[in-house]
Design brief:
Structural class: mainly beta
Strand content: over 45%
Largest sheet: 7 strands, mixed
Distance between the termini: 37 Å
Radius of gyration: 14 Å
Helix content: under 10%
Order of helices and strands: EEEEEEEEEEE
Number of strands: 11
Shape: elongated
Length: about 120
């Protein structure tokens, strides 16, 4: 299973970006899909999560600004980021729990850099 993340870039404070992460390979079922981020010198943190049923959760610092969604037909998870702040600058990673017909395994995307200028 491979996860391909895209959509990062440089944006001014207050701007918007949309990240995508597409899963491919031996996928019997995609369970929860998550977005994490890691800023320079900081630990990786969970930003948003969405279950296979569509339930979502967010870290407090992005609630009301970020929206996570998924397209089951495309095996893709999205992160719509609005009103971006400089402190949102980080490498963003997607993670998916995949059931391959035998067991659940976690897979990570390669990361996409988001830079928010003040």
């Amino acid at each position: 299973v491979q996860l391909q993340a895209s959509g990062g870039g440089l944006v001014q404070s207050g701007g918007s970006l949309r990240l995508s992460c597409a899963a491919s390979g031996r996928i019997y079922r995609l369970n929860a899909m998550d977005w994490y981020r890691q800023a320079p010198g900081k630990e990786r943190e969970l930003v948003a999560t969405i279950t296979s049923g569509g339930s979502t959760g967010y870290v407090a610092s992005v609630k009301g600004r970020f929206t996570v969604s998924r397209d089951g037909d495309k095996n893709t998870v999205y992160l719509e980021m609005n009103r971006l702040k400089p402190e949102d600058t980080a490498v963003y990673y997607c993670k998916a729990e995949v059931f391959d017909g035998l067991r659940n395994n976690d897979f990570w995307g390669q990361g996409t850099l988001v830079t928010v200028s003040s």
